[in-house]
Amino acid sequence: MPTTTGGGPTIYYETSGDPADPPLIMVEGFTAQLVGWREDFLRGIVERGIFVIVFDNRDVGLSQQMGGDDLADAGYSLSDMAGDGFRVLDALGLQRAHVAGQSMGGMIAQRMAIEQPRRVRSLTLIYTAPAKGRYRVTQTLAQNFGAIPPRLPRQEAIAAQLEHEGISRSPAYDWDEAWAEHLAGLSFDRGYSPAGHVRQYAAISRMGDNLPELEGLDVPAAIIHGRDDGHIRVDAALDMGRALRNSEVHIYPGMGHELVRPLWDEFAEIIARTVARGCRT
Question: In the chain, what percentage of residues exceed pLDDT 70?
Answer without folding.
Answer: 97
